[in-house]
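Duplicate of #3305? Posting structure anyway:
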C-alpha cells in the first residue's frame, strides 16, 4: 500500500514537472523565442502554448513595447575645442524578436554605445554657440545613425532626446558675461532709440506749434486789417452821409440862419474851453465882431456849394497851414 502511494506521488511530481516545462503563457505585447535542442524553432506570440518537454526551451523573452533607455552623461568636444558634458534618453522598440535575439548579443547595450558615439561625432562638427540651438538637429542625426545600424537587429529606434548640455564653469562664466554685454548693448540701443524718437517728437511738436501760431497770427492780422478797412469805410460813409444831410439842411428854407447860429454856438463853446485850459492865450482882434466871423464861414460854404453845383461832384477841400 505504501509502495503504491509512493509511486502515485512520483507520477504526480512528474506530471507537474512536465506541465511546468511544456505549458507557456505569453503576456500581451510580448514574444518568446523557442529553441529545440539549441536551434531556433519558433516565436510564440501572446497566449497559451504547449511545448515538447525536454526538447523545446524558451531561450529569449522580448517585450514589444517602447523602451526608454537612459544614456549616461559623456564628454563631447565641439568644433571650437570646448568640452561639454551631455546626457540623453533613447526610445526604441523591438519589431522582430528573432533578429533581436540572434542579430546581436545585447541590443540595449549596443544601442546605448552607438548613441553615445553618434552624439560625440555630431557635436564635434558644430561650435559651442550652435550647440544649444541645434538640439533638434543633433537628435535627428543620432536617430538616423542608429536606424542604419539597428536595421539588422530587429530593433527600431523611435527617437533620441538630449536631456542636458553642461559646459565647463569657465565657459559658463564667459557665456554669462557675453549675454550680459549683449543685453546691455540692446538696452543702450533701445534707450538711444527712445531718446532719438523723443527729440523727433519734440521737434515735430515745436514745428507744429510754430505753424499754428503763425497761422493764428496771420488770421488775426487779416481780421484786424479787414476790421480797420471796414471801420474806415463805415466812417467815410457816415461822414459822406452827414455832409450830404448838412447840405440838404442848408438848402432848405431857414437853413442858412440855423447854420449861422450853430457856427456861432460852436465857436463860443470851443473858445470857452480854450480859456479854461490856458492861462495865457492870443485872441483875434475882431473877437467881438461875431457876425463878421459867421458871415465869413457862410460865404465859404456858399463858395463850396457853387462849385458842387457846377461840377456835379463833391469838391476837394484842402487845408493849408
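Output from current build:
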Amino acid at each position: 500500500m505504501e509502495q503504491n502511494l509512493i509511486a502515485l506521488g512520483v507520477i504526480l511530481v512528474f506530471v507537474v514537472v512536465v506541465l511546468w516545462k511544456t505549458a507557456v503563457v505569453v503576456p500581451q505585447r510580448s514574444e518568446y523565442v523557442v529553441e529545440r535542442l539549441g536551434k531556433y524553432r519558433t516565436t510564440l506570440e501572446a497566449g497559451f502554448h504547449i511545448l515538447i518537454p525536454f526538447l523545446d526551451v524558451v531561450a529569449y523573452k522580448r517585450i514589444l513595447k517602447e523602451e526608454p533607455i537612459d544614456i549616461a552623461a559623456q564628454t563631447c568636444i565641439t568644433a571650437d575645442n570646448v568640452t561639454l558634458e551631455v546626457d540623453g534618453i533613447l526610445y526604441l522598440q523591438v519589431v522582430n524578436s528573432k533578429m533581436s535575439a540572434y542579430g546581436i548579443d545585447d541590443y540595449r547595450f549596443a544601442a546605448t554605445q552607438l548613441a553615445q558615439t553618434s552624439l560625440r561625432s555630431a557635436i564635434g562638427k558644430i561650435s559651442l554657440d550652435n550647440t544649444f540651438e541645434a538640439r533638434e538637429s543633433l537628435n535627428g542625426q543620432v536617430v538616423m545613425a542608429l536606424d542604419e545600424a539597428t536595421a539588422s537587429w530587429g530593433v527600431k529606434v523611435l527617437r533620441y532626446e538630449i536631456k542636458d548640455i553642461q559646459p565647463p564653469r569657465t565657459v559658463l562664466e564667459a557665456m554669462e558675461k557675453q549675454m550680459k554685454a549683449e543685453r546691455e548693448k540692446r538696452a543702450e540701443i533701445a534707450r538711444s532709440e527712445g531718446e532719438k524718437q523723443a527729440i523727433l517728437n519734440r521737434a515735430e511738436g515745436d514745428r507744429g506749434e510754430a505753424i499754428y501760431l503763425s497761422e493764428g497770427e496771420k488770421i488775426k492780422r487779416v481780421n484786424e486789417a479787414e476790421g480797420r478797412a471796414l471801420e474806415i469805410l463805415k466812417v467815410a460813409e457816415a461822414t459822406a452821409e452827414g455832409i450830404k444831410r448838412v447840405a440838404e439842411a442848408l438848402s432848405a428854407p431857414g437853413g442858412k440862419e440855423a447854420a449861422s447860429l450853430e457856427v456861432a454856438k460852436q465857436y463860443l463853446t470851443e473858445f470857452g474851453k480854450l480859456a479854461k485850459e490856458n492861462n495865457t492865450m492870443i485872441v483875434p482882434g475882431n473877437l467881438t465882431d461875431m457876425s463878421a466871423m459867421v458871415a465869413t464861414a457862410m460865404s465859404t460854404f456858399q463858395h463850396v456849394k457853387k462849385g458842387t453845383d457846377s461840377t456835379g461832384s463833391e469838391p476837394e477841400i484842402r487845408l493849408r497851414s
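Confirmed duplicate; merging threads. The beta strands are 23-26, 30-36, 39-44, 47-50, 56-63, 66-77, 83-94, 155-166. The longest helix spans residues 169-251.
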